[in-house]
Amino acid sequence: MATDKAIFLDFSNTITTVESENRSISDWLDLVAKKYHIGGEIHRNFGKMRMEKLIDREKNFRTFMEINREVLHELYGLTDILEEEYYRSHEKGLVLRPDFVDFMDKVTGRFKVVMVTDADDLYTKRTLQALGVTRYFEVIVTAEMARAPKPDPKIFNFALRESHNPSRVVFIGDSERRDIEGAKRMNFITLKMDDDSSKTAADRTVHNFREVMDTITELNL
Question: Is the pLDDT of residue 1 over 50?
Answer without folding.
Answer: no
